[in-house]
Amino acid sequence: MLIGNYQETYRSDEALLRTPAVRGWMAALLALALLFPFVAGDYLLYLANLMGVLAIAALGLNILTGFTGQISLGHAAFMGVGGFGAAFLASRLSLPFWLAVPAGGAMACLAGVVVGVPSLRIKGLYLAIATLAAQVIAEWVFVNWTSATGGIRGLNVPPARLLGLSLDTDFKVYFLVQAAAAAHVWFAANLLRTRWGRAFVAVRDRDIAAELIGVPLFRTKILSFMVSSWYAGIAGGLWAYFVKVVTPENFPLSLSIQLLAMVIVGGLGSIKGTLFGAAFMTLVPEALKLLVGALRAVWPGAQAYLFPMRDVVFGALIVAFLIFEPHGLAEVWNRIKRFFALWPFEK
Amino acid sequence: MDLLLQLLASGVVTGGIYALVAVGFVIVYKATGVINFATGELMMLGAFFAYTAMTAARAPFALALLLAVLAAAGLGALVERVVLRPLLGQRAISVIMVTIGLSSIFKGLAQMIWSGEYRSFPPIFPRAPLVLGPVILPARQVWPFAIALLAILVVGLGFRFTRTGTAMRATADDQQAAYAMGIDIRRVFSLSWSLAAVTAAVAGVVVGTIGGISPQLGAIGLRMFPVVILGGLDSIPGALLGGVAIGVLENLAGGYLDPLLEGGGVKEVVPFAALVAILMIRPYGLFGTREVERL
Amino acid sequence: MAEGPADPNDDRAILAVETLSLSFGGLAALASVDLRVLAGAITGIIGPNGAGKTSLLNCISGFYRPDHGRVLLDGQEVTRLPPDRRAALGIARTFQNVSLFEGMTVLDNVKLGAHARLRGGAVSSMLRLPWAVREELRLREEVEREVFDFLEMEHLRRRTVGSLSFGLQKRVDLARALAMRPRLLLLDEPVAGMNEEETEDMARFILDVQEERGITVVLIEHDMGVVMDLCHRVVALSFGEKIAEGTPGEIQRDPEVVRAYLGEAA
C-alpha cells in the first residue's frame, strides 16, 4: 500500500517518473520490450510494428485533439505527406532513412501549418469539417500528383540501412519502430508538462481566459498542429519503411477515423491512454479474424461476415466507450491501479 | 452550349436531392448542435428499406416509400434516445465520433443483412424523358427530383404551419426560453432526428432509383459537408441554396475538368475546395449565424 | 482608509483611458469614459448593475474592442493590441466568476500565469535541453516563493481546481494573476460570493499586493465596506458614464452617486 509521496527538492518533484516504484516498472517494461522480438513470431512482430507506427500517429492526434481541443479528421493525410515525402526522398534521391523520415516529418509539419491557419478564424465543428476537406483534397493530390507520388501505383521504398545493416525484416524493423515510438512518447511527456503543454490544455478548456492571461491563441494552436502533424509524418515515414511501398490507398479517411477511435477508446488527453488505445484497436480486428477462423469449422459461411462484423464492432466500441467510459482505457487503468494501491484495506 | 445546359440541368437535379438531405442535417444541428456523420448511412438504410419492401413484399413504390419513411422515423428516434441523449452537452469531439461510430455500425449491419453486392430497383417510373428545348432529362432523373422537391415542400410547410414545427423552431431559436414556455425539449430532439432520418431516407430512395444501391451508398453522406458549410450549418434556406449550388458545381467540374486529368476524381474534390474557400471568406457560410463569445 | 502611494504628488498615471465608448447593437455600454489610474494606488470602480464596470475592465484587458477612444498603458497606446500582448505588457486580471482551468492542478493554473514571461520553445522542452529544464525549475521556485507562500496556499498545489471551494478558487485566480508579475492588476468583484472570513483574507491579500509588491490595483466591487477600506480613489459609473471621481469619503457624499444608487425618486 502506497501511503504518501514525499519529495525533497523541486527538481525531484518535477521529475517525469516521481517514485522508485514507477521507475522500477518502467525498467521492467523496457526489458520486456527488448526481449519480445526474440521470442515472438513473424505475425506478432508485424502486429507490434503496426501498433508502434499507429501509436506515434495517434499520440500526435491526441496532442491536437485531446490536449488542445482542435478536432482533426485529416490525420491520415498528414501521415500520407510524411510517408510520400520519405518515400520520394528515399527512392528518387536515395536519401538514407535517418534523413528521409525526419524530412517527411518536416513536410507533414508544414502541411500542419497550412491546415492549422484557418483555426485562427474557425472553431469547433467548423474546424473539424475544414480538416475533413483537407483529407479529401490530400487524397486527391496523392492520386493525381503522379510525378511526386507515383499516382495509384505509389512508390517503392528500399529497406532502411543502419550501420551497414539492412532493416529488411519485421524483426529488424521492430527495433527502429519501437525506438522511435519510445522517443516520441518521451517527447510528448516532456512537452505536455511544461510551458506549451500547459498552454495547449488552457486553450482547450477556456480559450478566452487563456488569451487574457497571456497565452497567444493562434501561436499555441499552430504549434499544436505542427507538433501533431510531425508525429503523423514520422509515423507515415516509418510506415513506408515498414510496408516497403506507399500508395494513396494507405492513407484514407477511414485511417483518420481509426486514429480518432484509438484516442477516444484510449482516453482523450492521456498519453498512456493513447498507447492502450492504439494497441487495443489494432488487436480487436485481429481477434475477430481469429474468432471467424475458429467459427469456420462449424459455420462455413462465417468468412463472408468478417468485414462487416469488423465495421459493426469498430463502431460499437466507439459508441460504447463514449457513453459508458468517456475517459477511455486510461481511466480503467487508473481504477485498477487505485484498487491495488489501497489493497487490502479497501475494496 | 448543349453540354453546359445538360450539366446545369443534371446539377440542379443532384442539387435538389442534396438540398433535401441538407434540410434534415440542418434541422438536427439547429435543434441539438450535432453534426451527423451518419447521414449517408441513413440514406443507404432508407433505400434498402424501400428496396426490401418492393422486392420481398412486392409492395408498390408509393407504399414502399411510405414504409421506408416510417421505418426511418422510428430509427431516427431510436438513435436519438439510445446514443445521442446520453451525450447531451458533451464535447464536440464526442458528438462527432458517436455519429461516426453509428455510421460504421449501420454500414456493417447493412452488409450483413443485404450483402455487399450492387442492386437496382425494379422499374418504377414512366420511361418518357422530359424534353426542355435542347436539354433532355431522362425520366429516371426527373421523377426522383420531383419527389425530392415534394418532400422539401412538405417538410417546409410542416415546419412553418404546424404546432410541432413551431415548437421545433422555437427550440432552435432559444432552447432555454422554449423550455420555460413549456415545450417538451426532448420530444423536439427526438423529432429532429426522426425528421433527419426521414429526409435522408427519401433522398436515399431517390438516389437508389437513379443509380442502384449497395451498403457503400453511404459514402455520399460526405458530400453533405460542402453543402451545409456553403449555406451555413444552421440555415434551412442556406441548405436549399447550398444543395443546388454544390450540385451544379460538381457537375460542371466533372463535365469539364474530369476528362483532362488521368486520375480523375475532380467531381468529388471540387466541392471540398469550395468548402475551404468559403470557410476562409465567410467562416459561418452564406446564411449561418456567428457565435457570440462570452467570458 | 489605507495608506496612499509613496509620494502623494506623484500623479503619474500608469493607465489612462480616454473618451472610451462601446455599444452593443445600439445600446451604449460605455459613453465617452475618461479615467486615469495613479501608479501604486488602489482604484475602485463602483456603480449599479449595468453601469458598464465590467465592460470597462474588458476594454482595458482587451477582450472587447472599444468603438471609440484609447487605452494607454504607461503612455503607450494598447487599444488595438490583442489580450495576450497586453498581458505580456503587464496587465493582469481576475474574473467575476473565476475563469480557471478546472481540470488542472492549482500549480499548473498558477504556472500558466507566467506563460508570457517564459522563453522556452517547444523543441527544447520536448528534448529536455538543459536551459528548458532550468527555466521550468526556476519557475517552480518562483511560484512557490512569490505566490504560494505569499497567498498562504502551499497545501493546495496538487489539488485539482474543480475540487476547491469558490472562495479558494478566487484565491487561485488571484494567484494566477500574480504569477504574471503584473504592473497593473484588474480585479473583477474579488470578494463577491465570499463569506466574511474569506472576504477579510482577500482584502488583506489585496492590500499586501499593493503595499509589498507596489502593484497598481483597479477593482470593481459591490461590497462598499471593502471599497471604502481599500481604495485610495473611487470612480463611480452609471449607465456607461462616469458620474463622480474622488476619495472614498467624497464619493460617499456625492449627490450624483447617491441618486444613481437610490434612483431618481430619492
Summarize the structure.
Chain B has 295 residues and is mostly helical. Helices cover 70% and strands 2% of the residues of chain B. Chain B is built from eleven helices and two strands; from the N terminus they run ααααββααααααα.
Describe the structure.
The complex is a heterotrimer of chains A (347), B (295) and C (266). By secondary structure, chain A is an all-alpha fold. Chain A has helices spanning 10-13, 20-39, 42-67, 75-91, 97-116, 124-144, 146-149, 170-192, 195-205, 207-212, 217-243, 253-266, 271-295, 306-324, 328-342; strands at 155-156, 160-162, 165-167, 245-246. In chain A, helix 4 runs antiparallel to helix 5. With 295 residues, chain B is mostly helical. Helices cover 70% and strands 2% of the residues of chain B. The radius of gyration of chain B is 19 Å and the shape is globular. Chain C is an alpha/beta fold. In chain C, strand 1 (13-24) and strand 2 form a beta hairpin. The longest helix of chain C has 19 residues, at 130-148. Chain C is globular and about 60 Å long. Chains in contact: A-B, A-C. Chains A and B meet through helix 6, helix 12 and helix 14 of A and helix 4, helix 9 and helix 11 of B.
Topology:
The complex is a heterotrimer of chains A (347), B (295) and C (266).
Chain A: H1 10-13, H2 20-39, H3 42-67, H4 75-91, H5 97-116, H6 124-144, H7 146-149, E1 155-156, E2 160-162, E3 165-167, H8 170-192, H9 195-205, H10 207-212, H11 217-243, E4 245-246, H12 253-266, H13 271-295, H14 306-324, H15 328-342
Antiparallel strand pairs in A: 1-4, 2-3
Chain B: H1 2-32, H2 39-55, H3 61-84, H4 92-114, E1 130-132, E2 135-137, H5 139-161, H6 163-173, H7 175-180, H8 185-211, H9 224-231, H10 236-256, H11 266-281
Antiparallel strand pairs in B: 1-2
Chain C: E1 13-24, E2 27-38, E3 42-46, H1 53-61, E4 68-73, E5 76-77, H2 83-89, E6 91-93, H3 106-113, H4 122-126, H5 130-148, H6 166-179, E7 184-188, H7 196-213, E8 216-220, H8 224-230, E9 233-238, E10 241-246, H9 248-253, H10 255-262
Parallel strand pairs in C: 3-8, 3-9, 6-7, 7-8
Antiparallel strand pairs in C: 1-2, 1-4, 4-5, 9-10
Helix pairs in contact in C: 3-6, 5-6
